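Bug #77: duplicate submission created two jobs. Keeping one. Sequence:
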Amino acid sequence: MDDSRIAAILDFLALADRLKHVLRRGCTRDPATGALRQENSAEHCWNVALVAMLLHAEMADPPDLGHVLAMIAAHDLVEVEAGDTFAYDEQHKLSQAARELAAADVVFGALPPDLGTRMRALWEEFEAGETAAARFAMACDRTQGFLQGVIGGQHWRDAGVTEAQTHGRMAPARAAAPAFDLFIEAMYLRARDGRMFAE
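Kept job's structure:
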């Protein structure tokens, strides 16, 4: 590696570090105090990777886990520039694709061309959702988002989100494999028992 390549990779990693400061609507609860705080997008990506590792073994025909984890690592990097879009904010979702496409040019363009092309391809594969690996990664992503609502306990209620509103978002994840359907149904039961949805 020459000096310019090293510098570009270091600069990109510093740019990616900003993902730790992109806040999401989901909350995490401090087990010692019970206090809630918003999770950030970097924490979300780590948790999505953990979901992937745990549910991968439950798949009848699992995709390549290394490829899935690479896709998960790349899937929200555009949020460094575009910010997070809350899944139930219909107005903000109207501009999401355009904002994220412009952000992809900036974020992946910061890398040396070969690495930028590879990272952007992972992001585009995730967004297109056409491969088995992308569908699995998407199911993990949506599962984690839902799980964060259950962990936070009041995420949907505070945002005015009813259970019925979550069904459309979770349907593709539930359809990805029986393991996802069972896991997500177990989370729905906890959410209902905890009266976590808005009325």
